[in-house]
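Handout, section B. The chain below has 347 residues.
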Amino acid sequence: MNPRWFEEPLAVPDAAVRAAAHARQAQLTKPPGSLGRLEELGITLAALQGSVRPHLDTPWITVFAADHGVVAEGISAFPQVVTAEMVRNFARGGAAISVLARTWNARLEVVNVGTVHPLEDLPGVLDNRVGPGTANLAQGPAMSAAQLHDALTAGHDAAERAAIGGAHLFIGGEMGIGNTTSATAIACALLDLPAAQLAGPGTGLDAAGVQRKSQVIEQALRLLRDPQPLTVLQTLGGFEIVALAGAYLRCGQLGLPVLVDGFITTAAALAAVRLRPELADWLLYSHCSAEPGHRRLLQALDARPLLELEMRLGEGSGAAVALPLLRAAAAVQADMATFAEAGVSSA
């Protein structure tokens, strides 16, 4: 594989289909605009899928899991072993994203890109470990250049599997104790904002814990030599966050629409869009989470999230909750009758 594969061309949404979908939407049996954003979403999905009648029969969810060396700084309310324990929970079907994937008949895979604690073979879990967790980003770069490449490739390959599997939509999720610290550091670097404006409780830190997290992030930011996206990811990222960025970039190349989840996945999306601005066309945003930095990331991406439910779990759960809205938008665009078809008088 070309090590700079992410620089290859991205797909372009179909402008002719967008125009045709807009024309069809105007003829459906309802007052214009009466279904609000569902109409806009249906037209967007049509352009992304290249079909005036879009559908979302096969959503694909990939959860990337990895550990973070920065937990040594005391920035998490949970012990590091929880990452591996939650991967087992995913495999057993007991996690929130497992339940939601079953509920909406979505394909779910889990990719271990770097847990510290070894894992046995588990159903639905791919072993693609880049390393036993990242290095402590407060003391130096989180990963080597080779590990950055390997994590991006893990995301690339996940998007390829989704496309080969017939996916109509890709959702990326994450699991990694300490990853809100990494994501906040990435957001601070890309937005040029202090940690105090973006740091939040993550898995449940109290005020003193959030202050400690901010201090650790500021220490890491002082070590950043270059604000370019790849350098930011290598210096401050987690293997799962880099894999998410790689998956989004490959989805853009493959013409596979993406529904972005919460704070951590949006940090990955911002890094990917900074690297390839045209990727923005392929990203939809599911919700605005309770994590304080998420709204700033969404604003930087000029993104309009579908929901605001005060969620902050991660795993891809917010995107999975928003999935029925996208399905409804696609169904309205594809299956409603026009005035002429229904024999209904128009205005």
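Note. The chain has a mean pLDDT of 97. Compare this with the example in section A.
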